[in-house]
Amino acid sequence: MISDDFKQQLLNRIDIVDVVERHVQLRKAGQNYVARCPFHNEKTPSFSVSPSKQFYHCFGCGAHGNAIGFLMEHSGLGYVEAVKELASMAGMVVPDDRPAVVAQQKAAQGLGEVLLVAARHYKEQLKRSESAIAYLKRRGVSGEMAAKFGLGYAPAGWQTLAEVFPEYKSMPALKDAGLVVDAENGRRYDRFRDRIMFPITDQRGNVIGFGGRSFADSTQEGPKYLNSPETPLFQKGHELFGLFQARPAIRQHGRVVIVEGYMDVVSLHQHGVDYSVATLGTSTTPAHVEKLLKLADELYFCFDGDDAGRKAAWRALENSLEQLVDGKQLSFMFFPEGEDPDSFVRKCADNDIWTALPLSEFMAKELGRQVDLETDEGRAKLLDLAKPLLKKVAAPALSLQLRRRFAKMADVTVPELEELFGLRPAAAAAKSRRPAREVQRPAPLSLTRWMLQAILNDPTLAERVEVESLDTSDRFFPALCHVLDLLRARPGLLERDVGPIVLESVRGLGIAGLVREAYAEVLASDKEVSSDEFMSALKALRDRVQRRRISELIGKTIRSAEETAELSRLLQVVSERAKDPTVKVESRV
After folding, report:
1. Could you tell me how far CA 181 lies from the centroid of its own chain?
2. d(Cα 456, Cα 449) in Å, to the nearest integer?
3. Distance of alpha carbon 352 from alpha carbon 26, whole angstroms
4. Contact 378, 384 (CB under 8 A)
5. Residue pair 264/278 in contact by the 8 Å Cβ criterion
6. Closest C-alpha to 367, from 396, 421, 359
C-alpha cells in the first residue's frame, strides 16, 4: 500500500509538463501547454496541460487526469508501476517496509555507487592512455563526444580497480556489479582489461553497466565487445545504449535510429544524427520496441546488408509485431557492403539517409523471395509463412493492410485469408474494440457541481460550506462531501496541489469519475469565482433545498408533530430570506 503522504510528496515534486513532454511534443499557449491529443487522432491541438493545476485535459475526446493517470493511460502502466516510474523521475524511492524489498533496494543503491566510482576511474585512465586516445581520434571521436558519453579506458592490468577500491579482494558489490570475476583458484581479476569503456546508463543518466570494446592497438583477446553481465540494475533486454543522451533529439525529431554498436552511436551523434541508440549485444527485444515507440513516431533499424544483418533485422521485425501502433512507422535499412553507420552517414545528406523499407515492405519481400508465387504450392507456402506473423500484429489498421497485401500476393480474398488463419474479420474486430473517445458535450451544471468546481479551483472556499445546506439528492453531493472532508483534514493545500491530491484520493472509488469530470471542466474554464459569487450560490442552494423540503412536507397527508414544527420553521426562514435583497437565486441547472 502506497501511503497518501508519499503520493502527495511525489505529486508536489513532479511537474506534469515534464512528464507529458516525455511522450508528447508540447508548445506554450498562454499559461498552459497544448498539443495534438495522444489518445485520439486529430489535426488541430485540443490537448491542454496546465502547470498551475497539474492536470491534463483534451477538449476533443475528454481524456483528463494528473501525472499518474497520464502514465497509466498513455503507457499502459498499472497504478503501482506508474507511481514507481514517477518516483524514479523525481529521484524518490517508493517506500516498502518488507524486509526482502528493503534489502534489494539497499543492494541496488550499493551497486550504483560502485559503478559510478568505476566509471570515474575509467574516465581518468583514458587521459593516460595514448593508444586509446589515438584509436578514438582515428575513429573521429571528438573530446566533446567522449565527454557526452563518459567514455573511459580499462587498463591492461589484471587488478587495476584495486587502485580505487581498497577492499578489492573481498568486496561482494564488485562481483555483483559485474566489474570483477572470481576464478576457481580463488583469485579475483578485473572483467574489463585493455578496452575502451562505454558506460551504460538508465533513463536518468545513472551508470548501470558497461560495454568494453577492444581496439586496433589493444593486446586484449576475446570478443570485440564485452558487456557487463545482468545484475539487479542491468537487464540487456530492457536497456539501450545512448538513450539518455539521445532523448532530447528523439523528442525534437520524432524519430530514433537503432544500430548495433556503441561506436556506431557515438559516430552518428558526432555527425549530427543525435537521435541514435544501440542494443546491448543482443537482438532487439519487444521491451526495446515498446520503450522507443513511447518516445518516437518513426523507428529506423539499421543493419549490415549481409546474411547476418538480414537475420538480425528479421528478429527485430518478429519482436516488434505485438508492439506496433497505428500512426507510427518502423522501417529497416541495410548498409551497402563495406559500409557502416559512420562511413555511410558521411556520404549522405540528411534527407537521403533514411530511405528505408517500411516494415510491411520488408516483411512482404522477405517472405516473397522464399517462395515461388507463380505456383499454387508457392502461394500456399507464403500463407503458411505469413500466418504466425499476421496473427501477432497488434495495430488494427496495419493488420488490415497486411491482410490485404498477403491476400493479393497469394491470390485469395481477405475473408478467405482470415478464415484460413482463424482471424476475426477486420470489421468485426473493429466493432469489438474499445470505441474511440467521442467529442463530449458538457452536461448542464447543477449548483452542487458548480460549487465543487469552484472549490477545486480555489480550496479556500471550502471553509465557507456547511454540509447541512447541501443538496443530498444531487449526484455530485458525495463527491463534494469527499473533497470537503479531504480539505479539512489537510489544511494548507494550495491550488497547485489540490487537484492531483484529490484525484489520487478518489482512485478506485465510485465518485472518481465525477471528480475527474468536474476537475476537467475547471481546466477548461479560465473564469475565476469571487467569494461573493460563491456565497450567493451557496445561499441559493440552501434556499432550493429548503423549498424542496417544504414541498415534501406540504404534500404529506399526515405529518408528525416534529414535521409540522419543521414546516413552520422553514416557511418562516424562506419568508424572511425573500425580503433579503442580497440573495440572488441563479439558475444553473
Report:
1. 36
2. 11
3. 28
4. no
5. yes
6. 359
Contact between 332 and 362 (Cβ < 8 Å): yes
β 298-304/255-259 pair status: parallel
As a whole-number percent, the residues of the chain with pLDDT over 90 amount to 32
User: What is the per-residue pLDDT across 126-143, written as a single tens digit (0 to 9) for each?
Assistant: 999 999 999 999 988 999
The set of cell numbers assigned to 287 is 521491451
Poorest-pLDDT segment among 172-176, 230-234, 534-538: 534-538
- Cα–Cα distance measured from residue 334 to residue 153, given in angstroms and rounded to the nearest whole number: 31
Q: For residue 201, what is the enclosing H or E element?
A: strand 195-201
* pLDDT tens digits, 280-329: 877 899 989 988 887 788 999 998 888 888 999 999 999 999 999 888 89
Q: In what order do the strands lie in the sheet with 225-227?
A: 152-154, 195-201, 207-213, 225-227
CA-based end-to-end distance of the chain: 40
What span, in angstroms and rounded, lies between the C-alpha atoms of 30 and 39? Answer: 23
Q: Which residue has the cell 499559461?
A: 31
The three cell numbers of residue 424 are 476475426
Neighbouring CB atoms inside 10 A of 564's CB total 12
Provide the 3-class DSSP secondary structure of residue 117: helix
One-character DSSP codes across 311-346? HHHHHHHHTTGGG--TT-EEEEEEEPTT--HHHHHH
> Among 229-238, 329-338, 355-364, which range has the highest average pLDDT?
355-364
How many beta carbons lie within 10 A of that of residue 306, not counting itself? Answer: 12
Tell me, what amino acid is at 136?
A: L
Cα–Cα distance between 344 and 334 in angstroms, integer? 10
CA distance 262 to 224: 11
> d(Cα 193, Cα 314) in Å, to the nearest integer?
34
E strands of 433-520, at which residues? none
Distance of CA 190 to the CA centre of its chain: 37
| Residue 152, pLDDT score | 96
Look up residue 2 and give its three cell numbers: 502506497
Judged against a pLDDT cut of 60, whether residue 120 lies above it is answered with yes
Which is nearest to 398 in space by CA: 326, 299, 329? 326
**Closest C-alpha among 506, 462, 464, 501 to residue 484:** 462
Q: Which three cell numbers stand for residue 547?
A: 423549498
Q: What is the mean pLDDT of the chain?
A: 81
* Nearest to 478, CA basis, from 504, 506, 498: 506
The kind and range of the H/E element at 198 are strand 195-201
Q: Which of 45, 42, 50 is nearest to 66 (CA)?
A: 50
> In 3-state terms, what secondary structure has residue 28?
strand
- The CA distance from 568 to 201, in Å, is 76
**C-alpha neighbours within 13 Å on the C-beta side of residue 230:** 7
* DSSP codes, 243-288: HHHHHHHHHHHSEEEEES-HHHHHHHHHTT-TTEEE--SS---HHH
Instruction: Name the residue among 532, 545, 459, 536 with its Cα closest to residue 502.
Output: 459
With a cut of 90, say whether residue 557 has pLDDT above it.
no
C-alpha cell at 110: 550499493
Q: Is the pLDDT assigned to residue 351 strictly greater than 70?
A: no
